[in-house]
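__Protein archive entry__

___
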Amino acid sequence: MEARLVSPEWILQNYRPGSFDPPWSWVDEEMDLEKRGELTIPFGNRYQDTAPVVLCNYGRVWDGHHRILAARRAGVEIQAEFIEAQECI
């Protein structure tokens, strides 16, 4: 499937993190990653060419939580791939 550039803010508004079941939120996700020191990834325009984040059509982020939050902090768009629910297993 082809990836396209999207705003991290758009992802945060339209998809939920898949790390844990609701009520886990993006605020929870960011606080957890920050606490573990996992949001210190160097980020810049070059990062847009790395593996895309994977978004399931039922509103869940399947892969790329760190990249989404790091891209938002860096103020850059990120590559996203959209997949069907049966692929999110």
